[in-house]
What we know:
A: 2 domains, 3-stranded antiparallel beta sheet, B: alpha+beta, 5-stranded antiparallel beta sheet, 4-stranded mixed beta sheet
Amino acid sequence: MKxxxxxIIDGKECWAKPGQNVIxxxxxxxxxxxxxxxxxxxxxxxxxRVCNVRIEGRNMTACTTxxxxxxxxxxxxxxxxxxxxxxxxxxxxxxxxxxxxxEKSGNCELQALAYRFRxxxxxFPYEFPIKGVDASSKYxxxxxxxxxxxxxxxxxxxxxxxxxxxxSSRGGKHLHVVMDKELAAxxxxxxxxxxxxxxxxxxxxxxxxxxxxPIGQRKYDxxxxxxxxxxxxxxLKQKEQ
Amino acid sequence: xxxxxxxxxxxRVEGHGKVTIHLDEENNVKQTRLHIVEFRGFxxxxxxxxxxEAPVLVQRLCGICPVSHHLAAAKxxxxxxxxxTGDGLTPTGEKMRRLMHYGQIFQSHALHFFHLVSPDxxxxxxxxxxxxxxxxxxxxxxxxxxxxxxxxKFGQEIIRxxxxxxxxxxxxxxxxxxxxxxxxxxxxxxxxxEDFNIEKMIEWSQGIVSFFKDYYKKNKKFIxxxxxxxxxxxxxxxxxxxxxxxxxxxRVVDHDGKKILNDVDYQNYTDYVEEEVKNWTYMKFPYLxxxxxxxxxxxxxxxxxxxxxxxxxxxxxxxxxxxxxxLTGGKPNGHCLxxxxxxLIEILHAAEVMRDLLNDPDLMKGELTVKGEKSxxxxxxxxxxxxxxxxxxxxxxxxxxTMANLIxxxxxxxxxxxxxxxxxxxxxxxxxxxxxxxxxxxxEVAIRAYDPxxxxxxxxxxxxxLEVSLYDAGDNLIDRKRT
Lengths: 241, 483
Ligand code: SF4
């Protein structure tokens, strides 16, 4: 493979572009490494830790680790999957996730991961935090109770070059993601939709258009999250032949 | 000094209920009360939530008729998004919702009749509870039990085809619906299989109406005399007086058939209906303002609907309606157990409506939603399986719900249910200072006629034990019986 370096994921020989991070390299080889915060093409944040893989005995976040020639990576192993499941459970209990009435349900990556890792009941006690809601802007309903602090919105959503979302401690010891009311007020409907789409969960919602995708036609109604990546295997094989 | 008898919880009604019977020194029934644990927390939960979440959130009130809450909330929110009241939607939006609703009526009524009522009729209310249940029906009347299961399933499949899921779907959204009827579902529901298609449902619906009429012929005295009292009757009716379970104007007729609320726009319901609070129950007691709490109470549900409407707009049900009406000389019917009869006529009507809608091309094409000028308050009423259901919301500038008021069917039927329990207790209790099995059964049968969903919560069918406690004049427990 010209210009590519060899890496091994779960014993399988894979080819990656030099400088590529492990998560993207895996995806290009039809291997799904779960993540909540990673967005292709956006500087990785390593904030959700769901993409934890084991490289030479150490747990590393696959989104922030660049590939190296001959690198051996463990991904789909019971120990790591259990760890990922625990992280997902932590995210559930540290927010207020009432999926039944959440319009992101079916399109939500956190929920989809919980299904993929067969989470039943979280092993940790629910915190029921009060994180508040900011409904003040015309097109965005920002429900911080569902925020998983993935920083996707912080990294991608801008208005006139300025970040609409930012971390804030708001005087307390806990960090929150807050929305700049003035910038948010200037956002167009389309920009609001983009913000909703980038949010892996139901924390950023575009106002007034709830529940438009019918059950059965939502993103994860028929296939588990990651299936699109894994299905690529056949496609890649054909390409190789 | 009085003696108090407590029956709790009431089995085979959804949710929890408790009956207390107060006796005087001579063991005459002095007072009865049906205590209902109704959890009104939903009105609080939705505050602060974005309004478009309400139809999906509030349907969790109930596992038996979630569609009613889903649609009543959606109807209220139609107002908020400027889509008018019920008749302002696109044909696709309105008809898909109607199909969902009649599917819900069909499945809920089927569940109630086959699972909860048929054991009483087939085995008699004094029969051993060990056989007087749906399992007993399945063992001894297999055909009927199979029909019950299939009819309920049919209603649920209608709901799935319109709301996306058999229970707690998302179909109705403010201003319309989020999907069309798929060609696959249409075919499945029209011609699924020999025993699963809409014509079969109509046939079976006719069958159970006949079944009840036969039973009635043989047991007229029991059915008629079980618990009778005159009352006002409330329901929505179509503008022309036809039965319409999805949308209409609000009508109340008195025991004589006189219209005391004459087809008013339900948007002004607060001008006509008030809710009274009593110190012995969390449940409120709605009444018509013009008549006051003493005289203004009313019945809702199948019996009330057959008492208020002028006709049923489908031919087979209309025929049954005429026969039903003739029993009381065209006047409103006050026999508690005729709720069952009325419910079965509604099953037939629902089946006919479903057939018409399934064949309607509007469900498969056109615009799904409409939007108009936004407003900040919305009221949605519909006829849920158990009776008139009110949803009322207010929102703020930020699209958050600031107020929600729900009057559920069971609340509307609060006084009639109490009356029925009182009558039955008087008939079966007098002179006895102990709890008898037949009396317990009778109380249960009376409550069940209204098909109350007592706590608006989901419970396993028939799995709750019945407990009766008897207190003497000094409030000491002297007897307790469990089934
Ligand atoms: S954001 Fe996702 S996980 Fe949270 S309530 Fe909504 S659907 Fe559930």
